[in-house]
Amino acid sequence: MGLSSVRAYHRxxxxxxxxxxxxEHEDSALLxxxxxxxxxxxxxxxLAGVETLIxxxxxxxxGIEERPDGLSFGGTVRFRQLLEVxxxxxxxxxxAIGDALGYPPVQVINAATIGGCVASSCPFFDLPVSLLxxxxxxxxxxxxxxxxxxxxxxxxx
Length: 157
What we know:
This protein is of the alpha/beta class. The chain is built from 9 helices and 7 strands, in the order βαβαβββααααααββα. The chain has helices spanning about 15-25, 40-45, 80-85, 85-90, 95-100, 105-110, 115-120, 125-135, 150-155; strands spanning about 10, 30, 50-55, 65, 70-75, 140, 150. A hairpin with a 2-residue loop joins strand 4 and strand 5. The two termini are about 30 Å apart. Residues about 135-145 have low confidence and may be disordered.
């Protein structure tokens, strides 16, 4: 089953709007950002009942910031953006991240988001594990609900 049941597509610009849409559509809504994993979900029959797509790319969660305690970036940062961070390209102990980002096809690198990679929980995506192994455990993903934040460690462990 593909996306034939989708009846609505929303691209909110405020976290409150995301919360409202999720409340309104409940289990028939699916959050997306890069959308690169939708095909995989569809071919496995995991999109049954999805009638509303809520695109998070309008929320401004695509920033990257180097901090003294690590790297902070939003959930809609694309693989391509992360590949361009000098700290990750040139930093000691971060080669695994470049490797993890380098194997997908260019179409995926340009569209896939870090948050989507974590949310899909797909075992062949090495990026979350590479971020943890490279001591970037302070990576923060902002989620679409007021100012809620969680660490990558908390999301995976």
